[in-house]
Amino acid sequence: MKRILFITANRLGDAVISSGALGELIRRYPAARFTIACGPVAASYFEACPVVERVIVISKKRYDLHWVSLWAQCVGQWWDMVVDLRGSGVSLFLPTLRRRILRGGRRPGARIGHLSALFRDRPALMPQAWSRPDQERLASEILPDEGRYCALAPTANWDGKIWPAENFVELGQAIQARGLLPVIFYGPGEEEHLRAQPVLAALDGALDLGGQAGLGLVTALLRRCALFVGNDSGLMHLAAASGVPTLGLFGPSRASEYAPTGPKAHFVAAPGPEGEAPIAGLSTERVVQEACALLADEG
């Protein structure tokens, strides 16, 4: 049985994007077992993947000692392949038949396109999302079949990417008027909860599904929604990978690099130069129009 070590991102969004490369490896080596090394936030995302036998959490340490820790946990295994998307160089010191290392640093173009350089034939990569049967069952209890739901994700990892809360409230009210129940998603931690709180407080009847749920369950919940609308964030990428009709909202972040990728993924950007446009310039009317168009397309 082949064993493959896959070293990937700290942040959820980058981890989801990297899953396109993981999915391609799974396609090429269907009998392989994978060990994933990633940051704490992304760990539960990979745990739901059926071919993953181990997830190693990389918690940052001073002087880059987290890489020494990863090496110590992996050096005792003979690997058929080590794939390093962090450009860490750890794979140079691990026993393996093959290494594929993606150099670090930011560069122009879609991030998911950069990952195709790992393969000689440069395939078109599509991010993946997984959930276990027990997570699917629990999701069906939380969001029963008789309802119709719209997922809203009003937070992000920095304030410049966050569409104003009052705009999300207006969008939620427009969605409610069309018979959908807003479901609010956000990341773990008190800071994320505080960012989502104005939207939760203003939307009567909205469901609070943010916080501490494992990402396999979040994936299962998202798949039960008719639509996802959210800031450029890890949740946006997860929704797109899950196959949910997804509308990502972009301001100062670059859609040319981080637009959502998936079978029903879309985005709308604030007017102005890419990478500089304030997200507050993205009007509620435009987002509501785009969201309703996606709902109409889904029929």
From TrEMBL:
CDD domains registered for this protein in UniProt: GT9_LPS_heptosyltransferase (cd03789)
Q: Which Pfam families match?
A: Glyco_transf_9
Keywords from UniProt, A to Z, are: Glycosyltransferase, Transferase
GO molecular function terms listed in the Swiss-Prot or TrEMBL record: transferase activity
The record's annotation in InterPro entries points to: Glyco_trans_9, LPS_LOS_Heptosyltrfase
- Chain coiled-coil ranges: none
Q: Which domain of life is it from?
A: Bacteria
Q: What is this protein called?
A: Glycosyl transferase
Source organism of this protein record: Asaia siamensis
Taxonomic lineage is: Bacteria, Pseudomonadati, Pseudomonadota, Alphaproteobacteria, Acetobacterales
